[in-house]
Structures are given as C-alpha cells and as structure tokens.
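User: Could you walk me through two proteins back to back? I'd like the raw sequence and the structure tokens for each, with a short line separating them so I can tell where one ends and the next begins.

Assistant: Of course. Protein one, sequence then structure:
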Amino acid sequence: MAPLSVESAMTKLLHTSRTIQRRNGVRPPEAKRIKHAASLLREGSPPPDAVGAGRQTTYLHFLQKLSGNSMVVLCAVGLGLSAIAIAREDVLLDLPHEINSTIAALDNPVLRRLANEYMGVAERTPPVRSTSDLENSPAAGPLTASHHGPSQNIDQDKVERTIEQRSSSKTNTGGPKQGIGLIGDVYELSLKDVQQIIESHQISGSILLTDTYGVNTTPFVTIPITNELTDRLISNRPRVSWNEP
C-alpha cells in the first residue's frame, strides 16, 4: 500500500462519501471498520504490550482529531487503520485539519445516519492532552458524555445559548479569571444545532449552567465553542439581538 498524502486521502474521501450516499449505506466489511473505530474511541488505547497497540493508538489519535462522528465513519470506511497507521507524521497532522475544514463537501445524510446507528452521540475516552495542548488548541477534544435518545431531553421550551466570540485565544496569560461580560450577536439555535455542537468536538472550555433563581429570566447553559464552529452555525442565520456590556 502506497503511503498516504493529504491530496490522495481527500480524493479518496470525496469519492467514498459519494459512494456511500448513492448506495445509501455500507457493505459488511465497511460496517466492521466503523464498529472497530467506534470501539476504539469508546475504550481508548490498548495496553502497550497488546498486538498492534502502536498502530491502533496512531489510528485513535487521528480519529480523535475529527469533527463529528460522521467524519469518523467516513474515514473508517474510506481510509481505515491500515492506511492511517503507515501515514507520515505531516499527513497525520495536516489531514484532520483539511477534513474538518471541508466537512460541507464531505458530509451527507447517510453518513450522519450511520454515525447515529453505529456510534450514537458517542461515549468516548478523551485524548490524553498536555497542558500546552489545552492552552493552544481551539478545541477541547471529543466529548465523554453519553446520550441515549429522547429520554435524556434538553429543555423543550428553549435552550438559551450565549456564545462569546473571542478576538484572540491567547491574550489572557495567567492569573485568576475575573467576571467576563458577554458581548456580541445572539442567534437562536434549534435542538438539531445543539446536537451538532455536541458532536463537533469543538467545545473549547467548561460548559456552565447558570441558575438565575427565576428572577426575570430562566436558567441557561453557556457552551464555549471555537470560532470555526461559530462561523458554520451563524452562516445565513438571522440575528436575534445584540448583547452590550
């Protein structure tokens, strides 16, 4: 098998996405690949002395960088462990970024259906990240929370989200955080949008629940996300209001 390049991988993934959509599903060997990827993401790296541990760990780290379970499904079918395990380091670093920035061209309803079928919203072992990774990375990595369908309902009235857009991710250099006023445009999101946020792997900090004690407003949840995901969510969406300090 020839070593992978970013260009050849993207060509293969585009072709695989179209094939899966036209076929409206995957073949049994491809389904087996998806199940293996889902299992690896849930259980984490195998013991170091296990057979093939190094290859599987390389594959796991690659999958953990992908935005959304549908991209995991696509890469499991289109590339698989064998291709990723022998890829050069520069490809392993650059390819996830290329995939995540081309989701609009790669994703389709069949991939999303397969992601829900084989992976759900994902119970995942998060990647091991150093302090410098957490400070410099725009995303916090895959979520570890599980979702089991309608029985775990998000508030049916409205989910109030306030997204703080940061002009720079590295301007705050140490010291305790002070109270932060929220400034920016406000957009109304649907429950489908909320699920997209959960699956995106682009939550960039702690998820906060604010209890307002029922005084003139209802409790709300704040989910900090990356600028890249913000741009996708607000595209062609009307503003609800403007928040001023």
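----
Protein two, same layout:
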Amino acid sequence: MSKEVDYFKEKLRNLTKKGAIGGGCILLLLLVVLGYFGISRPVIIIVPDCAGIHVRNQGTLNAVIYKVDAFWYWAGQVALLANLPEIHQRVESEATPVRLQVPDIPGPAGGIQQREHCYMKLVVRYRIPGVPVFRYTTLLYFKYDPDRESWISTKSIPPKYRSLGSLGVGNVSKLELSFH
C-alpha cells in the first residue's frame, strides 16, 4: 500500500473519542452551512409586465448581479454581444422589481425580413453579497417584435430557431451591420 494510506490508517487507529466527536461536529456544521445556501438562496426572475427589462429577487437572500451576457439568435445563427459592461446591482429579497442595469439593447435595424425571427437570451450571473463562493445563473429570453420595435419576454427560444453553429463575437454596432 502507499504511504498515504498507511498514514491515514495510523491516524484512525490513534483517533480518540474526543477527536472523533470534534471532527463529526465540524463536518455537521459544514453540511448545515452548505444546506442553508442550497435551500435559502436568491432567485432572480423577470417581471414581464414592466417596460424595459425588470427583475425581482424571489429568493430568501439578497443578491448582487455582477455580469450579464447577451446572445442574439436569428436565421440559424447565434452571436454574443461582447460589449456589455460589467455591473454591480444589488437586488433585495422579495423587494419591488428593479430595472436591470444593462444598456438598451437595440433590435435588428431593418435587416430581418418578416419571415425571419430574432431572439435574444440574457445570461444573468449573480451571487450572495459577501459570499463569493456561491454563484448562480438565470436565463431570460426575449423575442424581437418588429412592429413595436421592442423585445418581448418569452419562456424560451423555440428549438427550430436555436443555433448550434459557430458563435460570432462582436459589439452591437458590428452585429447591426450583419442585418443589412
């Protein structure tokens, strides 16, 4: 056997009752803390009735949104909007809805024909304030309405419009050029 296994066997043989109880208490405390953050956690959801992108924390702990990634899906293609700035937005537990602090994301300027659809997925990354170990992610989906020139929240992106191909990366102005 290896030296490490022999070392641990020797330590277990020399373990006193007091040491076993102390180790068990520490393990129990660790499991309780992990369980608390598994059950009691922030849950960010979208509020569809408000103009703009409003979110609410439905969980029991406060949250800090630190990053939002945006993806456009159109005509079997997908692109990442790479110029969204990092944010630091606190969302209190069970508070009133707050507007997500991302810049207004423009729609495709006239380049989409009526038969094509454009969807957007926002990946909202957040954590518990003061506890950087636990990080969470929620997905928000939107469909572009060319008549009202706005993004409307949806439950998901329909499978036929999802793209598994190459991911283009660019900023909003570069992506708008691809629609012309």
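The chain has two domains: 3-38, 40-177.

Let me know if you want the two compared in more detail.
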